[in-house]
Amino acid sequence: MLKVPNHQVAGHKAGDGKLGPLVDDSGRFYKPLQGNDRGSNELTFYTSFSSNTRIPDHIRRFFPKFYGTQLVEASDGSGLQPHLVLQDLNFGRVNPSIMDIKIGSRTWAPQALEDYIQKCLKKDRETSSLPIGFRLSGFQIYQNRELGFWKPERTSFQSLSADEVKLFLRKFVSSNTSANLDLQPDCSFASIVYGGSTGILSQLLELKAWFEDQTIYHFYSCSILIMYEKDFVSNGKIPCAEIKLIDFAHVYEGKGVIDHNFLGGLCSLIKFVSEIITTPDECTTEASPKDIQKNQIYFENGTS
Amino acid sequence: MLKVPNHQVAGHKAGDGKLGPLVDDSGRFYKPLQGNDRGSNELTFYTSFSSNTRIPDHIRRFFPKFYGTQLVEASDGSGLQPHLVLQDLNFGRVNPSIMDIKIGSRTWAPQALEDYIQKCLKKDRETSSLPIGFRLSGFQIYQNRELGFWKPERTSFQSLSADEVKLFLRKFVSSNTSANLDLQPDCSFASIVYGGSTGILSQLLELKAWFEDQTIYHFYSCSILIMYEKDFVSNGKIPCAEIKLIDFAHVYEGKGVIDHNFLGGLCSLIKFVSEIITTPDECTTEASPKDIQKNQIYFENGTS
């Protein structure tokens, strides 16, 4: 029996008669094949990537597993429709804290259609993509059993300044993230989630080394998901911190050139994360917590 | 006595009543302060950079020395005009082979004026800047005493494909670069000029490490000059291969963010140079030498 995913933080959502992805209870994620070029482009990517023997295993693990395509009952009631069958990245997770970070100062390929380029360029300039090299595209932090998740609305955190982005990245690994935005994030989980030999920074650096070399694909408008379990850390268990790349509707052939646009954005994200690990106590001076009070839109309950 | 530089490969040139840079016989380069914001912006950069104690010496050596400003007789006959006084990067060189490579897929800052942004964006899309992350902006190769320099016209090599760019970068370190474009470049100087512990690649990697960390400046429309003496290599001497950054009229404050745009382009250039070192014999299959015959415009004699 397919159902709407619990922890989708960005993208089209199923429910209320709308078309969106579904999950089953065996760890698979069903993403509707978009009717325009995007669907076929994403299918082309997954097909190419899954059979490409030049992708090392330590890089392949950063991508969702691909199980082909399947006709399933679409969430909008339109009957059987083709879906990409992918790994459900939240399968087995309990109360995941998740960031969806769209990488690159440019979300459009040189060969894209002019209308699409102009639309993307406008958004890249209006958001933090152009100045910072990435933008937050989805965000949920688990607070605790009583308060559930803090899940600010997407439009409210895409155009942040560098200091505001840093504040969000700090809140993501803080024990005191809550509805009370006057609290400075304590970053008490920074060293265990972002740092360490298997932490987020280490994974980002592995990905970076591959991007410095690979000239197979250029990833436009692709996101890095960062996920971990805050409850596990609080209870002294490993945080299951991991990164995954998602959204490949705008992947093109690299044709012998590295993906300098993705790499630049990735290096910028790495710099932000590194700084939080090395100076977790540093208070941001320019962005006050109150400045982003406007970003706090609604809360929803956790699943436990 | 000031004179017109012998080896300027890009930018406004003095002579024929036009305003351009001049050099003296003591190793100084006089660059007219452009009347618009660019001149004052470049002066601001040099003033800030030269007094900034956070710039390590191994990075400072990649920038021209700055000696302040001075009123000198302008090359266009307009009388005494303010000039930046800089290090003449070709002082002491005999027959330098030089590439001017404008770094970054985007040559405009987010805060630039709209007209300027649109002009730059158009050019970035028309040239190799957008797809490759940099574009050749100046190019001269010393051939030998008889043939002098091969100096194709700028407009002819800015919109190259990746394979064509690689061909130019290979020709730059070949002994058989000549008017005869049917010859495949032999890359016989690749290991000594690009490679080695003090070669171009090593210098580019030092610069890259700094750009992964520094958030002081963002360099838009800035070039890396790559220079060496082909005659020296042919005679078994050291090639005096070095990189220098030039053109800082569009440098802005980094404000806590790395220069992901410059860094991405730099990493792309590094990948091209690395591939030539590791596979100097590889023939480019997609770009035939005849394809760029159109680029060969004129020759001038060497200085020895």
UniProtKB/TrEMBL annotation, chains A, B:
Gene3D superfamilies associated with the record: Inositol polyphosphate kinase
A GO CC term attached to the entry: cytoplasm
InterPro entries named in the record: IPK (IPR005522), IPK_sf (IPR038286)
Record carries keyword Kinase: yes
Keywords: ATP-binding, Kinase, Nucleotide-binding, Transferase
EC number from the UniProt entry: 2.7.1.140, 2.7.1.151
Protein name as it appears in the record: Inositol polyphosphate multikinase
Originating species: Fraxinus pennsylvanica
